[in-house]
Amino acid sequence: MDEVDDILLKVHKTFDIVGKKWNGMIIYVLMSGPKRFSELHSSIPSLSKRMLNERMKELEEEEVVVRHVTNDRPVRIEYLLTKKGYELGMALEPISKWAIKWIK
Amino acid sequence: MDEVDDILLKVHKTFDIVGKKWNGMIIYVLMSGPKRFSELHSSIPSLSKRMLNERMKELEEEEVVVRHVTNDRPVRIEYLLTKKGYELGMALEPISKWAIKWIK
DNA sequence: TACATTAGGTTACTTTATGTAACCAATAGT
DNA sequence: ACTATTGGTTACATAAAGTAACCTAATGTA
Predict the structure, then answer these.
(1) pLDDT tens per residue, chain B (104 residues)?
(2) In this structure, what is the dihedral angle of CA atoms A56, A7, B48, B77, given to the nearest 10 degrees?
(3) Of A29, A33, A71, B27, which residue is least crowded by CB atoms under 10 Å?
């Protein structure tokens, strides 16, 4: 088992998450605290409900977020980062620093 | 001009680069030094020549990489990170740390 | 009673992005 | 003349994302 190849594989799998449209932004927004479906939707206006829903299902599957249903009516859904997700969010922070420095 | 919205926009634009299939891996591989077209291709076997070529054109356009043609025959093309690209690569490093910790 | 609203979706359909494999141009080696 | 090499390009197939209308359950309003 080649250590270098193993790392490359893991990095590759991680970029399959981060390198998927919308995921970076979703995690970035969730770093400011739990958000409801509609809050995520309005925070990223160009992200459609269809894609938001699909991405959240995938991120839940990856154990990056947790979906929490309240008893309110109409139903309210809160999405929050897991520890894994929070640490991924932390790992994305330098990207936002880079963005501020380099994007005109 | 809302400062928060401005940052969100810049982060959004950055995730349009990083959150595009293959770009993270390409930049990650280039962090170990300049690479020829064929070296990038063999470092990331599942990335086709077509997509590699397309991504490199885009990254050059974004001024993340520079394309350097040597006088050798057959022609050799070297891709290297610009300062902007190198700093983006640095910003991606925590992601590889996260990968090692969290990907099984 | 009937109708509208709200949250969080889902469905059907269109458009765009990516994958696959064959092909090409220039040069060098046999 | 034939073959290999590098860094592509082309045509075509499949997968992913965008769009807009619709749905469900409950509650509020006329």
Answers:
(1) 789 889 999 999 999 999 999 999 999 999 999 999 999 999 999 999 999 999 999 999 999 999 999 988 888 999 999 999 999 999 999 999 999 999 99
(2) 130
(3) A71
Nearest-CA neighbor of B30 among B41, B19, B17, B16? Answer: B41
Domains of chain B: 3-102 (1.10.10.10)
Residue of chain B minimizing CA distance to A6? B100
Tokens of A91: 């790992």
**Beta-carbon count within 10 A of A59 CB:** 25
CB atoms within 10 A of CB A38: 12
Sort out which chain B residues have CB atoms less than 8 A from A7's CB and list them.
96, 99-100
A11 vs B28: CB contact, 8 Å cut-off? yes
3-state DSSP assignment of residue A74: coil
Amino acid (1-letter code) at residue B85: G
